[in-house]
Amino acid sequence: MVIGNPPYGAELDGKEWLKLNYKETSFGNIDSYKYFVQLGSILTKVKGVLSFIMPDSYLEKEYFKDLRLYVSDCFNEITNIKLGDDVFDDVNLPTPIINLNKKGSKAQKFYYQDISNINKLNKPTSLNYKTNFIIEQPEVSKTFVVINSIIKCKNTVPLIEVYEQVMGVKVYQKGKGKPKQTDYEKDNDVFVSNLPNEKFNYPFISQGINRYIYYTQNEYISYGDWLAEPRKSEYFDTPKIVIREIINPRIFATYIEESAVVKNIAAVIIKKTDDYPIKFLLGLINSTLFTFYVNEQSPKSSNKSYPSFNSRLLKDLPIIKCSSLEKEKIVERVDLILKTTKQFDDFIKYFTKHISIKFELEKLSSNLQNWYELEFKGFLKELQKAKVQLSLSQEAEWMQYFNEQKQKAQTLKAEIEKTDKEIDKMIYQLYGLSEEEIKIVEGENGK
Predict the structure, then answer these.
(1) Residue 257 burial by CB count (10 A; 0-12/13-18/19+): exposed, middle or buried?
(2) CB–CB of 208/244 below 8 Å?
């Protein structure tokens, strides 16, 4: 039996030697714990067991497929136990245990169990395979995670078959780009500007992505082969969905019609066929069901410091096959929520700009920025904090104005929430969820 907690992320000397002598686990990024797994396999005798606790990156990431394939070739039985975050006090990474039984043949049994959500005080000391484990053989080059999903994949097609998808551009990295970048480019931010001109001719989206809206940052990019990881311009010149990589508390995606380059903090999706409209997909991705699905399927979603999805998961999202009429109904609702969200945002900004000018406030508190959530008494208190004093007559005048504007804002907000729920309901029906399954999905997402 071989048991251990191999080091990971270490700076390694002799990388060429390692690649030569550990060819099977030298694909993609070099990581020390891959070599420890291979060495542990060599040390494990037939009928022996190898058990390691290590980062969860081996479960799904593309550049760990060599490790997954190697393990499945060398061990007959593979068990993955997902422990979640904070297993070690000084390590903020999701961590699983991998148990490998060597019986002299390729893997025939795969066990996967997620106990990350179990109260730490009640963590089980043993697990019964029959009652605790989902047993199925995964496609090991893609994943070691096997989960029975609420979304049944019958009558669906993977997203990548009907849409095009990439992650956004990586702007800077030493040694990349044509000509190769040095530290100078990043240190001086030479490819991004706050002013547009012939050189900086693309709007640049580096943040501000929200559900059904994005907030411009007045950034522009010089786009070309000199970037570290540019993409085909078609992803930026055509109407697109942009999905923020961080999914806390849920997926944030919006539609952008105009030309714009997106940073690699987000995924970009464009249309491949007229049979699958881009706004139909936006409704699916922003739905409560798809947030539940991504959280359910991706180990990265449970990382407290950086809950996110990966590109492979996006490409494999199960897109329901349905009629043109059913797609169009969702597109109509998406058009409505895009319009109403923009109206709501414009209205909120108009009011905040008005009070900024009226009371000569250079910077508004977060409460004043979200003024529509305050009662008038709270609004007055925020003004007083900003050293704005109103007379009694001014208070009476502002109370009427504030309450009128708040009512208009709340009406728009209610319309957005109503449309959101209508889209959710339509998607539940398309995917054939039962009432019990809907309760599970909405309970998981805090509804």
Answers:
(1) exposed
(2) no
Q: Is residue 146 part of a domain?
A: no
- Give 303-313 pLDDT, tens digit per residue: 555 567 778 88
pLDDT number for residue 331: 98
Q: Is the CA virtual torsion 19, 23, 28, 34 positive or negative?
A: negative
- The single-letter code of the amino acid at 122 is N
Residue among 104, 100, 101 nearest 52 (CA): 100
The average pLDDT across 360-385 equals 96
Does 128 lie in the same domain as 201? no
How far apart are the C-alpha atoms of 282 and 253, rounded to whole Å?
Answer: 7
In a domain, 274, yes or no: yes
Residues 121-161 have pLDDT tens digits of 455 555 555 455 554 555 555 555 555 567 776 799 999 99
Q: Where are the alpha helices (DSSP H) in 308-391?
A: 311-315, 324-358, 366-369, 376-385
Q: Are residues 99 and 172 in the same domain?
A: no
Burial group, residue 47, by CB count within 10 angstroms (0-12, 13-18, 19+): exposed
Residues 280 and 234 in one domain: yes
Domain that holds residue 44: 2-135
Residue 32 in any domain: the answer is yes
Please give the pLDDT value at position 386: 95
Q: For 196-216, what is each residue's pLDDT tens digit? A: 999 999 999 999 999 999 998
Note whether 254 and 205 are within 8 A (CB).
no
* Domains in the chain, number: 3
The terminus-to-terminus CA distance of the chain in angstroms comes to 47
User: Within this chain, do residues 70 and 182 fall inside the same structural domain, yes or no?
Assistant: no
Question: Do 86 and 49 belong to one domain?
Answer: yes
Confirm whether pTM is higher than 0.90: no
* Single-letter code of the amino acid located at 363: K
Residue 77: what pLDDT? 84
Q: Give the model confidence (pLDDT) of 81-115 as tens digits.
A: 877 766 666 665 678 888 888 877 776 677 777 77
Average pLDDT score over residue span 16-40: 85
Residue 24: exposure state from Cβ atoms within 10 A (0-12, 13-18, ≥19): middle
Are 171 and 278 part of one and the same domain?
yes
Same structural domain, 69 and 122: yes
Which CATH number is 70's domain given? 3.40.50.150
225/340 same-domain check: no
